Amino acid sequence: MSVIRLLVLGAVRQHGRAHGYQVRNDLEYWGAHEWSNAKPGSIYHALKQMAKEGLLHAHEIAPSTAGGPPRTEYEVTEQGTEAYFRLLRESLTSYDQKPDVLSAGLGLMVDLSREEALELLERRLRAIGEWRSAVTEYYTPADGPGQLGHIGEIMDFWVHSADTGAEWTRALMERIKGGAYTFAGEGDPFVGVLADGEENPYATGERHPGDAR
Fold first, then answer.
1. How many CA atoms lie within 13 A of 43 on its CB side?
2. What's the rounded Cα separation, in Å, for the pair 2 and 87?
3. Does pTM top 0.90 for this prediction?
4. Which residues does 191 contact at the CB level (< 8 Å), separation at least 6?
5. Which residues contact 131 (CB under 8 A, 6 or more apart)?
6. 124 CB-near residues (< 8 Å, 6+ apart)
7. Domain 1-93+103-111+187-202 belongs to what topology?
8. What is the pLDDT of residues 47-77, one digit of tens each?
9. Torsion angle, CA of 9/10/13/18, rounded to 10 degrees?
């Protein structure tokens, strides 16, 4: 799945309408440039491509009185909303070895209802169990990794990763069941984006031609 699309759609959706630099600023504020491919070029490319595909609507904004080029503000379309929730649900249910997939889903999961988030995490637990079972068809953890030579360490790592992932998922589900966080329909959500003009303490400072568009 495309993590950059999920992140960009999520950031635009939280603003209602946002220009490219706002989206970049938000993703850097979330630290997404450290744990995903949310680099400036990827962000601006995703915005333009999704606008071409009808997932975003591009609004041309006149230059400000202070000068500078006109900017494009993006808004998530109905088709884009459908794509966003499809990607979000997939990120929480699939047992993907890449941490950016789950990280993106966790950062946006409160856009779902509490009940649906729990249901998706339950599906994730089942997927972890199925994946672990597939590994242990060829590897018996009790016999240790040495049974397959040093290659057995790979299998051992996979099994331990699955066990740790399942334990963590159960703990998250318990926190959510206990009332942690504000999910869709429960009241004012946690504000995870920067206000227009608000300084970003985590900005990389790297300049990109797309920042001014």
1. 28
2. 8
3. no
4. none
5. 95, 162
6. 92, 93, 94, 95, 169
7. Arc Repressor Mutant, subunit A (1.10.10)
8. 999 999 999 999 987 565 555 567 799 999 9
9. -70
